[in-house]
Q: What sequence folds into this?
């Protein structure tokens, strides 16, 4: 694991630590982080209710994620970071508790700046 991933891992741990109370209130949603120069800037939660038959399964988890589920969520999130190959972008972790099981998916969005390309700077994101 390269250094930038280690630093980002620690930042993700801090995000989860900051979100403990809010995560304990919801059982589904999206935890998002905006990344710039491999540093977390803005972060937060978007609460999502599942539709259709899944609502009944989720309704039993109105108390939110347990400490154990939050720890599991953190480990799952950190485990996905090595798939990220950019320095600027967004990470969104969609999560839900269905039938007593935590499920999560990760979405990575890279951001590029056209002005850097026009000004002759490097053409990587940023």
A:
């Amino acid at each position: 694991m390269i250094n930038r991933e280690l630093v980002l891992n620690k930042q993700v741990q801090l995000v989860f630590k900051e979100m403990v109370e809010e995560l304990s209130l919801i059982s589904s949603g999206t935890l998002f982080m905006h990344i710039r120069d491999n540093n977390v800037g803005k972060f937060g939660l978007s609460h999502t209710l599942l539709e259709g038959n899944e609502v009944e399964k989720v309704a039993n988890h109105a108390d939110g994620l347990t400490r154990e589920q939050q720890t599991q969520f953190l480990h799952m999130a950190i485990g996905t970071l090595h798939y990220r190959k950019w320095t600027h972008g967004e990470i969104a972790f969609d999560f839900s508790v269905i039938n007593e099981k935590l499920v999560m998916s990760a979405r990575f969005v890279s951001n590029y700046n056209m002005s850097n390309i026009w000004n002759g700077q490097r053409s990587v994101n940023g």
User: Anything to note?
Assistant: Residues 91 and 108 are 5 Å apart (CA to CA).
